[in-house]
Design a protein that fits this description.
heterodimer, A: mainly alpha, two-stranded antiparallel sheet, 4 strands, 9% strand, B: alpha+beta, four-stranded mixed beta sheet, three-stranded antiparallel beta sheet
Chain lengths: 179, 439
């Protein structure tokens, strides 16, 4: 996907997350972008590694900064959790230039926004890390307990019980994936 | 009696102290090479006194890394929320302090001649200066130093802390290692950044980069991103600041903004970087630098400068044209720079202008320079006086308003400059227009 189409997809994702009630800070965009790419195969082309609050892409972080520089997204300060990403008028115009691309991914964007939009940072961290662990089959034996154990090992501040709940929640989400 | 602590005079930190083990690293070939790598590439052609080198910067980063480590691990500064992070490694703190200072010393070993100048285009796919840095830290020459230290240092630990997760994606970082790497490479408070802002502004002779780094460092803390009692936020630990240090943090981030706008992205400095890249592409075997350590260690700014001067004198030398532009100050001139009106029409306005001019006059007459500041928004935890932890954006109006620095410049050769400028102005509305709608 070339950059300008990707811009349309990312800003559209931010819009949908906000519509679902998301705070839409960087963590929300990062984790939603991860689900879109890793679980729903939208070819955003970002490289995700285990880092801040779970899977994190330095490329996506730089892209968000670049979108602010180009006036396509802006950060709005909000209490109590910090800044939210908001699409500018120009960003909306860019989305309007790519109706076919957005239509192609509409179901996937909607699914991610619907399932993640109302989650807190902590819930996103658990769920996205559960997906990261699940997709890396060398990390676990495939069981719920094996994946939860690995999640807890990676993110010590998440309890074993919290990790197990996250793995189960992820599995339910995977069963409902759009075609 | 043999001295065990050595002092080095420094214009920024007054004295930099190092022990005999650290001096072995300073005396190594890879580190001594940094005496011959300009910190700011050809910036001295614009700011004449900006001739400082990576050598003293790396010493400064080591000094600051040690100071930050001492502050954040001091018993008085460790809150109950993060005690579980520190307690298991309490006995290993001296080891980690040494690793951190070594990583700080070594973090720039892989820099090419003239530092950052266009390394993406001058290295083979998949390589950057951080990867060369890693190869050097892992080399037999350096591994011998790490293994002879008391206690011996694990090479992997030095790599992780020197490069950070972004450049060492294949390595797994514990929370503790992530915090320590943030001390060096962090977006908000990395000591690499603290030192280069202070040092570059000092040598360039500008005041923009100065801020109260003493206060900032004294108020740094390891903080949970939010209190564990807050059931919505993550309690993952991060490097943050006490409320009393927030103004110093703001001053640093403003300093960064001004240094980027006034020094690092200065248009003449940027076009010299581009001419240097063009020159090197013609001079180097296959158009790129070797990534072999021995080749890397042999090549410094001195060799490149000698080649530049020679090529500028002799028309039959490869790269003559580009060398002449640098040495005799016949650099391309700025013809177009991004402006808010054009960006509103097309975020890729500079590229459209470049393509149109190249199509009309020929590609060899123009250079396009587009670059945006990297890194994220300065969102870090702040510990308020009442013990609450909030995002820096909640507490600071200033941080919300610092713009992202970005350039989208187009340069033209002097011989064609005026004609190209007239043509562009006559055709501006046809060139800078919104991207075409997808069918």
């Amino acid at each position: 996907m070339d950059r300008i189409k990707r811009v349309a997809v990312i800003s559209n994702l931010a819009d949908r997350l906000r519509k679902e009630g998301s705070w839409c800070g960087e963590t929300h965009v990062q984790k939603a972008g991860y689900f879109l790419q890793a679980l729903l195969d939208v070819p955003l082309g970002f490289d995700f590694v285990m880092y801040k609050h779970g899977p994190f892409s330095f490329d996506l972080r730089d892209e968000l900064t670049s979108l602010r520089a180009d006036g396509l997204l802006e950060l709005q300060a909000r209490t109590p959790y910090g800044p939210s990403y908001v699409t500018t008028e120009l960003g909306k115009e860019i989305q309007g230039m790519f109706p076919r691309t957005l239509a192609e991914y509409e179901n996937k964007l909607e699914f991610v926004a619907d399932r993640l939009g109302r989650l807190t940072v902590l819930e996103l961290e658990k769920l996205a890390t559960a997906l990261f662990v699940t997709l890396d089959r060398e990390r676990h034996d495939g069981t719920e307990e094996g994946r939860a154990g690995e999640l807890h090992r990676l993110k010590k501040h998440i309890s074993e019980l919290g990790a197990l709940e996250a793995v189960r929640r992820l599995d339910r989400m995977v069963e409902e994936l759009p075609a | 009696m043999t001295k065990s602590i050595h002092e080095i005079r420094d214009p920024i930190h007054v004295f930099i102290r190092l022990n005999s083990q650290e001096r072995r690293v300073v005396n190594s070939r890879p580190f001594q090479r940094l005496r011959h790598i300009h910190q700011l590439a050809l910036t001295y052609l614009v700011y004449p006194s900006a001739t400082h080198r990576r050598f003293e910067h790396s010493l400064g980063v080591m000094e600051l890394a040690g100071r930050v480590f001492d502050v954040i691990t001091s018993q008085h500064n460790v809150s109950n929320d993060i005690r579980s992070l520190i307690e298991p490694i309490q006995g290993e703190l001296p080891y980690w302090r040494t690793v951190l200072r070594m990583a700080a010393l070594c973090h720039d070993l892989g820099h090419l001649p003239f530092s950052h100048a266009a390394e993406k285009e001058l290295l083979r796919e998949g390589w950057n200066h951080e990867r060369i840095t890693r190869s050097i830290i892992e080399s037999d020459e350096m591994a011998a130093i790490w293994s002879q230290m008391i206690p011996p240092l694990a090479t992997t630990h030095i790599v992780k802390l020197a490069l950070g997760k972004k450049e060492a994606k294949d390595l797994e970082f514990s929370n503790w290692e992530a915090i320590l790497s943030e001390i060096i490479t962090g977006d908000a408070f990395g000591v690499d950044r603290i030192d280069y802002l202070l040092r570059d502004s000092h040598h360039a002779g500008v005041s923009y980069g100065k801020f109260d780094h003493y206060r900032l460092i004294d108020t740094l803390r390891i903080l949970p991103s939010s209190r564990p009692s807050d059931e919505t936020g993550s309690s993952e630990p991060a490097l943050g600041v006490q409320e009393g240090g927030l103004h110093s943090a703001e001053a640093m981030l403003l300093a960064r903004y001004f240094m980027f706008s006034q020094v690092y992205f200065h248009r003449v400095r940027r076009i010299y970087d581009i001419h240097l890249k063009d020159f090197l592409k013609e001079r180097l075997d296959g158009g790129s630098f070797s990534t072999q350590i021995e080749d890397h260690l042999r090549l410094t700014d001195n060799e490149v400068t000698a080649a530049l001067l020679e090529a500028a004198r002799r028309a039959d030398e490869p790269g003559h044209l580009h060398a002449d532009r640098i040495v005799n100050r016949r650099h391309f001139r700025l013809l177009y720079e991004r402006n808010p009106d054009d960006v509103k029409k097309n975020p890729n306005a500079g590229k459209s202008v470049f393509d149109a001019l190249c199509a009309n006059f020929g590609e060899e007459h123009f250079r396009h320079d587009r670059f945006s500041q990297t890194g994220g928004a300065p969102d870090f935890p702040v510990e308020l006086r009442n013990g609450e932890i909030v995002s820096s954006f909640v507490k600071s109006e200033t941080l919300n308003r610092i713009p992202v620095v970005s350039i989208d410049n187009l340069f033209a050769e002097r011989s064609i400059y005026e004609e190209a400028q007239r043509w562009f102005e006559d055709n501006r509305n046809d060139i800078v227009r919104p991207p075409e709608k997808e069918n």
